[in-house]
Amino acid sequence: MPRTSITAKPRVARTVVQQALASHDADDPLVDMERHSRRTSKRLAISSIPVHPPLVVLHGGPGLTHDYLIPISDLAHTANIPVIFYDQLGNGRSTHLDSKPVDFWSIELFMEELNNLVHHFSIQHSFSILGHSWGGELAAEFEVQKKPPGLKKLIITDAPASSELWGESLAQLVQPFPPDIQEGLAIGMADPQRYWAAFQVFSAVHGCTVKPPPGPLNASFLAIFGPDGDTTVASAPFTDDWTIVDRVSQISVPTLLLNGREDMAQNFTMQPFADGIPDVRQHQFMQSSHTPFWEERASYMQVVGDFLNN
């Protein structure tokens, strides 16, 4: 979501759930796990009857954290789907590498990290992915480039098929806003605090319409824009010219496309996915913007759960 352009520790036994259940508080479905060296912060939502492949959730940004996606842990209870969250490298509770050159950050890096996480939990033979915003782009690239044999289903939620389409969408949506908001969004991460001030106004209409904004959503943004925030990944330009438009037909797993009626990712930004993926279905949440898992939480879980369980 914080993009800069508005122009055209566990050892896994037999299953993830078995390992997590051995150490979690029965009253808390979320389990924090870390590994040392280059640390990736991970979190599990535990289902009491794990009968479906685990769902790996990819957060947006680039540069955010998994916190704002916590509602998706509902699936552990409503659909018996184990859910794995993690903070991508350089973000949140994972290792920060702010001294790396800007060209260190790449989509390939984040795909390799995702692949490592899947193998870390020994779920490479059967898992699904849900990617939100930038996470949806990462998920699509992972399927196209890596062709993980164990990937069962893909959910691309509130994500464009190219950075150009994203920029066109924001350029349209920002038009009704005052000049200072338009200018703040246009300057982007060149001036993070000015951008953040403008983005909060814009996001109240097209990012998350829940009032007040949910605490976990604020926490994810403060990981970039707060007093101790880290803008390293959010400022890296590795998605500036990204597109998958001419490769979407290579997505071969069943795919669900989701967005909100007032979404930053307007319908036309996701249309290439709809047109090109062979096995695809779509759903739009009519009372939502960019975060339907907050704005229409129960409906979102129903749609996602039905897709994953059928």
How far apart, in Å, are the first and last alpha carbons?
30 Å
Count of strand segments:
8
Major sheet strand order? 1-2-4-3-5-6-7-8
Instruction: Tell me the CATH superfamily.
Output: Alpha/Beta hydrolase fold, catalytic domain
Shape: globular
Q: What is the N-to-C order of secondary-structure elements (H for helix, E for strand)?
A: HEEEHEHEHEHHHHHEHEHH
| Helix content, binned percent | 25-40%
Judging by the overall fold, what is the CATH architecture? 3-Layer(aba) Sandwich
Task: Please indicate the count of domains.
Answer: 1
- Major sheet characteristics: 8 strands, mixed
Runs in which pLDDT lies below 50 for 5 or more consecutive residues are: 4-37
Polypeptide structure, described:
The protein is built from 12 helices and 8 strands. Helix 3 (107-120) packs across helix 4 and helix 6 (179-187) packs across helix 7 (192-206). It has one domain: 3-Layer(aba) Sandwich (Rossmann fold). The chain is of the alpha/beta class. The longest helix has 15 residues, at 192-206. The chain has an 8-stranded mixed beta sheet with strand order 1-2-4-3-5-6-7-8, sandwiched between helices.
List the main descriptive attributes of the protein structure presented here:
310 residues, alpha/beta, Rossmann fold, 12 helices, 13% strand, globular, AB_hydrolase_1
